[in-house]
Amino acid sequence: MSPPRTILYTGKGGVGKTSVAAATARRCAEAGLRTIVLSTDPAHSLSDSLEAELGADPTAIGPRLWGQEVQAEREMEANWAAVQRWLGALLTERGVIDIAAEELTVPPGMDELFSLLQIKRHHESGDFDVVIVDCAPTGETLRLLSFPEIAHWWLEKVFPWERRIVAAARPIARLIDVEVPEADVLADIQRLIRNLIAMNAILRDRDRASIRLVVNPDRMVIKESQRTFTYLNLYGYLTDAIVVNRVFPDELADGYFSNWQARQSEHLTEIRSGFAPVPVLSARYFDEEVIGGRMLDRLAGELFDHADPAAVMHSELTQEISSANGTTTLRLRVPFGERDDLALQKVGSELVVTVGRQKRTIILPSALARRRPAGAKLERGSLEISFDNPPEGDGRSRRPASVR
């Protein structure tokens, strides 16, 4: 039995990603696929979107369709209880009030991280052909899942010595009045690390898993989405489609919304060029709220007109970042680029790549935003840009760089 197709929807809050996720799920179920759509957003709205009562466990809501609103508290109890009790007791003994101690035992982002472990459970169950995830409005949790090397290091270097370390630490702990974690605490941490490694394998399987960014054609949303897109590429996650939601239709080109419609048209051009060659799906701003089966099916009809919603729509990382010998290299796919047509310019955290008359702006991650381009070369359809060590200044470089 092959593993299920996994699609994660994320984006800035308020762009309509829950509606898009629910619409995709209904379309997949209608195509005959056993489909579950689950929300890991602490502020659940999936029940409202589907007009169905959903709980912490999969709930049947139609033929071949299930829904789930993961309860982070229950997941933390299952995955982090022993660690939470140990840290809570430790903080309380140090004078931290009970409520604050309870909050401090859960690092930021961990609640959604535990919720995402449901993906692993659904993969192991074999109950579904498609798993669709309505993520919280942030890419931070996905970044938490992007440290397999560290997790492997802990498993290979630390945990084989854990009993000896704890035994050696007990006499010192008594002297400074610190409680050493018991075996159940270490077991919780070890189990979480193993689950993280397994989650990484699932989400990095480009044949079966991908992320789709939901955006509105607004400048602020586009900028944040570009930054998220770069981070996803940085950590090896495949983005197979960009979903542009709430686009003003052409019939609004005249009248009160004419300026809005013109601006959105410009932003759509920016989206298509900025995320190329990733496919861009779009849906209009409907004349009524997208709630319930009828409106969700209208949304799905626009997004997936003559397209398979469960297909992997794009299979390559369009940006790759690697480091070796103190040099960081950003690799961009420009399959038809010619050396004489290419130019680079860096302004703050933005890297502007010009190919002929076309410009593409890439929002760099903070680690690269502080560096200057040291050189660039075109090789086998890829533009490779190397960055030097962080400069003393702010990393602004307005002079275009030449391409070898």
If you had to describe this structure to a student in words, what would you say it looks like?
About 6% of the residues have low confidence. The chain has an eight-stranded mixed beta sheet, sandwiched between helices. A four-stranded antiparallel beta sheet has the order 9-10-15-14. With 404 residues, the chain is of the alpha/beta class. The chain has two domains: 317 residues, 3-Layer(aba) Sandwich (Rossmann fold); 83 residues, Immunoglobulin-like (Sandwich), CATH 2.60.40.790. The chain contains 13 helices and 16 strands. Helix 3 crosses helix 5, helix 5 crosses helix 9 and helix 7 runs antiparallel to helix 9. Strand 12 and strand 13 form a beta hairpin.
